[in-house]
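User: We ran a pulldown and think these components assemble together. Before we commit to crystallization trials, I'd like a predicted model of the whole complex to look at. Sequences follow.
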Amino acid sequence: MSKNPASVNDLNSLVGRAYRHGFVTDIDADTVPPGLDESVIRLISRKKSEPQFLLDWRLRALAHWREMREPHWAQLHYPPIDYQAISYYSAPKQRTDGPKSLAEVDPKLLATYDKLGVPLHERARLAGVAVDAVFDSVSVATTFKERLAAAGVIFCPFSEAVQQHPQLVERYLGSVVPYSDNFYATLNSAVFTDGSFVYVPPGVRCPMELSTYFRINAIKTGQFERTLIIADEGSYVSYLEGCSAPQRDENQLHAAVVELVALDDAQIKYSTVQNWYPGDEQGRGGIYNFVTKRGDCRGRNSRISWTQVETGSAITWKYPSCLLRGDGAIGEFYSVATTNNYQQADTGTKMIHIGTNTRSTIISKGISAGHGQNAYRGLVKIMPNAVGARNFTQCDSLLIGKHCGAHTFPYIETRNPTATVEHEASTSRISEEQLFYCLQRGVSTEDAVNMIVSGFCRPVFKELPMEFAVEAQKLLAVSLEGAVA
Amino acid sequence: MAVRAQRRAQTGPLERILADFETVAAHLPESIVARAARRRAAEQLRQLGWPSHDEQWRYFSLRALDRLGTFIPAGAVTGSASAAVAPVASQELAQQERAQQELVLQELALPPSLPGFERRVYVDGMQFSGDAMPIQPRALEPSWLPEQRLGFLGDMFAVDAAVLRVSGAAAIELVFVTSARASGTAVYPRLRLELAADSRVTLVERHLGEPPALTLVCATVTAELARGAQLTHYRLQQCGRTTLFCDTLTARLHDEAHYRVRQVAVGASAGRTSARVRLAGAAAVASWHALAVGRAEQVHDCMLKVELAAPRSRSDEVFRGIADERARVAFSGHIHVEPSAPGAEARQSLRGLIEGEGEVDLRPRLEINTDDVSAQHGATTGRLDDALLFYLLSRGIDPPTARALLKWAFLSDVLRHIEIAQLRTEAERSAAGQLQDVLAVGAVG
Amino acid sequence: MSDARPVTAPIERNAALAADAPPVLEVRDLHVKVGGQLVLRGISLVVQAGEVHAIMGPNGSGKSTLAHVLTGRPGYEIVSGSALFEGQDLFALAPEQRARAGLFLGFQYPVEIPGVNNAYLLKAALNAARRERGLTELDAFEFLALVRAKMQLMRIDESFLGRGVNEGFSGGERKRNEILQMLVLEPKLALLDETDSGLDIDALKLVASGVNSLRAPSRSIVLVTHYQRLLDYVVPDHVHVLAHGRIVRSGDRTLALELERRGYDWVGGEAVVA
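Assistant: Here's a predicted model for the assembly, 1204 residues in total across the polymer chains.
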């Protein structure tokens, strides 16, 4: 592939080549063939009419990424990923290659939606039936935007923010997760195509839960999305990320970056229900989810909460973290991660206590079933100046079956004598006594398992917004289907 | 030695180690470690490379090893290795040597013998007193984990070994002393324990000595416990501050064997224990209680991996660490439950206390690969419990005394498991010696 | 409510009912092994609708084994014999099917299920049984109304509903919870395994009044107990003495009193001879 900036001719030939290789069935002028070099970055940047600072930033990231090696310290096993075989730019798809109606959708997938109680029109959208053929959400989106605008909240696709609020983007982009941070984040910095941008002005309490669910113009943001949320002084925002049902996705690699900035007295609550395609019962297919999420409690008494329910993906590699820089800042991490069949998850958090009287709470619940492997990896670091810092960590594993694994890798590094760090971990299984007790009350095995698992996860579910919690519970049930014979 | 010091500046420690090994390899006793095995160890170390600042080594001050003059053992340098290599002809020389040893022993001022214990003293890694046991070259040398790779140094350089083959009951005290003669070099204490079925052994292993210049004490311990064997292993590391102490241990337990370790680390400028205990037999039990107290610039790093590989195996770990002034105390407790271990139980309780600008790092790590297991760990770092402190103050006790008492209680979680009264008192003294206030207030005992 | 009234059993009426319907429970020559050991060695027992039976016996006589094997707890090997529940082969049913058919076990040691609240378990259990019987499921309000009434009877505080099943409960609370569940589920046959053990006299009376409130012509109760004191409050129609895996003696409630007077050695000795 040419190292020079792509000319129109180059572009045509690239597109043509992609077509010959059968990567896209319907020629789309906005899709580049597999491979990554400077010309691809320039192409992406030009396509999006980005300002110079952003192109420069991307190029620095690319140069850095080329010097990096893929990390292998996590408790994960997967075949090598060929980064030159991935197509790094594909405009939001029109889904013309998708099914034309529900009749064409995999019945197994529809059965899952049925169990989750997803409304009919939603099922079609989620299954990838062309949006315009289904229902019109434009009106929903519009009223939504009007309410936010009235409050002064900016909530838009990342690419739109680059155009309309370049000063905010330039100021905050990479300020939490620098382009050089880690292999996947650096790759993302070079090639990200879109994502979400949120800015909440000082003193504003965002009038509604923000969710990508409503933002239909970015349903398919691709495998390298980038999210940036800034809560200015004294503001509050709750952001929900995820989808309301299993989203089939043909992508193999998903390397997103999320940056949160909370200034003085600001609070960000970030909830995720991650339910990407986990692969089949034999462990074939599924998403590799390598995500970097980090929150910067930059201001005094700022607060960032991460709540995640991870039921999907073949591989999950993510550690939503908090830098507790402001005095009195609070970081929280509540996580449920399930692995069934051959799924692998290596997830956890980092709480870096820098400011005085900073506090953090970590509640992690890992559930392993089938041949699933579930690892919690966490770092609690108390820096020398973090006088009075406190952390509490509870890290519990539930194992269902003989072939699964649960692993806990906590790191506790304390450098201040006035700090208190407490870590507790336990491993348990669903005992025969518990199961029999439920059966004796007439509850079926499946319901009993779901009940016990939900009970195990309750401390995390209660941190989720109401509808999300209900959904999470149902997802959990679906993801553990067949776990107990 | 001057030549060596010069070269040190140019090459990394691994190259120096390998070069030192080549220099001395031909003179090292075949009976302690077979030549081929020494070579294999060197090769394995070369292949693994010198540890970088990775996950398993991040808390240990590896850099200190760069400052070491030589890795060639003191005995090999002086050409007076153990009887196995000493020329049989020169009886007179041996006698002279013996007289010299007696003198050294007197100078070393060892702690009094423990009643009922058979004592053996090893100076600079070589036996000085007690009956030597014939050593058969071992077919199977220990294979060290990457995080135990300093064990290969012991395999490469050892000039003598303490071997205990016990059936029945025994109480043995092994004292490893580093003398001034070894100052600036390295010594390689080596201990092999073979416990026959149903044997019961109490073993005290101590490391002492105050060489005037930076000296490496690199100990290797291997233990094999046959069915039903019981070993209580007290380990006291009380080396002087000029010592770099690296200790690598591997133990294998068969059915119903029981291994108790009570470890106290107070000495050395930097100490590292890398231990691996494999519960290979059904219902085998490992119980490891460790204590580390650091002050000034000391580093105490303990890494323990327990592998539960058989049904109903059990492991219990307790660690208590205090880091005072600018000391760093770290404990990595790794519990690995294999699918072959239904009914396994593992418990871990790790606690650290920071004083001054100290640092405590704890890594309680669980890897569980089957559901029929009960595993728990708790880890805390922090200050003394305010509620307890207040309780004592409200009873009219002054703050320094109250603090000292609480620190003492903290250490007692480990110390009270030392069942030999004289030894416990000694361990208490040396732990208290690390904590000025405890000593001053007289909270001991 | 503190005075738990002894209830006299309407035996004659039940005999009439029994004539045209199969017994609620009919156990025939049941032999059961646990861990290779024969623990039940030929139990036969018939429980008619409306009857209260007490099964007494020393520790290790097989009382709990009988309760567990009837309700389908795993770990028991049925060597021979049969058990019919309203004429239906009990051993052909899964534990939850037995429960939904109306067989209830009050556990001797009710297990903790952390995070699963009492209300949730109880509602799921009740609706599972209702579905089975072709009844409509209760919604949250109907359920709460029902359960609150029963809770008052058992003097259980409202806050209990939000707590995890038996989580952090005292022994007495656990037993009261078992009875509450029984009252809500209204089984056809309740097997109460040592429900009286570990209770003080007030709690015992409370539990007894709960059990008595459930007595009805269509409902049967089997009390498994070591001591006869529960029988002062819940008066049984029949008493059986179990020893070494067999029913060595059956009689009316006077048998329980005699047993208390003479101790288990009395029947134990006879069992060996028999």
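Chains B and C do not touch (no CB pair under 8 Å). That may be worth checking against your pulldown data before setting up trials.

User: Thanks, that helps.
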